[in-house]
Amino acid sequence: MKMEKIKIVPLEEINKVSGEVVDASMEVHSALGPGLLESVYEQCLAHELSLRGFKVERQVPLPVVYKTNRLEIGFRLDLLVEECLFVELKAVEEILPIHEAQVFTYLRLTGNRVGLLLNFNVVSMKKGLKRIIL
Q: pTM value?
């Protein structure tokens, strides 16, 4: 089952987009540091990616299809970049297995192979980056 907004594109293109998202997240983190709400980082990262010329959508609804029933049950992708890469943002003390499971679930629901999990509540953004591949 695939969400209509996610394009399935070659891995090389996803790698380019994800590299830019990582770079932009480091820039946002350098400017703001840790300790803010997730929503602040989301808005700032979306703005930074827009400044770099990327199409970015925030809080994109993600339906669940069970058998033939499409359920709009409140799942949302934090960011959808270039219609091919979703980014899940956190501002937590540490990434837990449940956060990774959330990204794996979103990958399955979208039919995509790569997602980013970014935790901004870290001293160094390098420690807050997780690329998840299905």
A: 0.91
